[in-house]
Structures are given as C-alpha cells and as structure tokens.
Amino acid sequence: MTTKIAVNLPVRDLAESARFFSALGFPSDERLTSANTAPHVISDDIYVVLVTDSHFKTISKRQTPDTAATCEAIMQLQVESRHRVDELADKALVAGALPANEPNDQGFLYGRSFRDLDGHHWDVFCIDPGATEKQS
Fold first, then answer.
1. Coil, strand or helix at 52
2. pTM score, two decimals?
3. Which CATH class is domain 68-136?
4. What distance in Å separates the CA atoms of residue 114 and residue 42, rounded to the nearest whole number?
C-alpha cells in the first residue's frame, strides 16, 4: 500500500474554504464530509481536510495559531510545469487568496505562493529536470 497524507487545516468558515479549494480544481470527497470537515483531493496520495476551528481544537487539544501573525507550516505542492504553477496560483488569487511571496524563478525551479482564505501558506512549484542536469 502506498503511503498517503491528509493535511488537516483549521478553518473559520467551512463552506467558504471548501468553495475555495473546489475553485482550485480539488474535488471534495463526500464520503468523509461532515458538519465539521470537508476533505478535498489534491492527488491520489494527498488530501487537505478542512476542519472547523472549534472541532480542530478538540482534535489537537491545543489552540490554533493566528495565521495573520504566525505560520506553523508551509504546504508545498510540486506540479509538472510552470504552466500548472501559474494556473493554480492564479486560480487561488481569483478565489480570494493573497500572495505570500514574490514568484521564485531560479531557472531550474519555478514557484509561486499564496495564503488561502484562512492564512495558511501554500507554495506551488515545479522543477525542470533538464535544467538541474545542466547545472551539475
């Protein structure tokens, strides 16, 4: 069996956050959806599980960070091309995200970042294997 990952993120407004991730093209998984959770499929092996802030606190037994002032993690998605990087970042911005950093273009690596509706930091990047071989 392949190892899979489900990243659980606390959210203020479950419906709005679910709308945001659907707008990025990440479908919801209705089998696991509840009044407190909205899982979205990023890939065959990656899920993001949106969890209401109040329910998240009962799971973690801790306070959730204020994402306006702190960053607990950066979620990074490696995609196949610069076009896909731009496509996801642009969709995120149209859906209400804010840019997190300037685009990162190192030739062999290209990435963009955004903060989702709840302030969680996401990086989307691609690596050009041909460019890394040329730099060696």
1. strand
2. 0.90
3. alpha beta
4. 16
Topology given in CATH for the domain delimited by 1-64: 2,3-Dihydroxybiphenyl 1,2-Dioxygenase; domain 1 (3.10.180)
CA distance 63 to 51: 14
User: What digits encode the pLDDT tens for the residues 26-51?
Assistant: 999 999 899 999 999 999 999 999 99
The whole-angstrom distance between residue 71's C-alpha and the CA centroid of its chain comes to 13
The residue count of the chain comes to: 136
pLDDT tens for each residue of 108-134? 999 999 999 999 999 999 998 877 555
Q: Are 127 and 81 in contact (CB under 8 A)?
A: no
Q: How do the domains of the chain map onto residue ranges? A: 1-64, 68-136
Q: Reply yes or no on whether the pLDDT at 82 is more than 90.
A: yes
Q: Tell me the residue type at 33.
A: T
Whole-number Å distance between alpha carbons of 136 and 130: 10
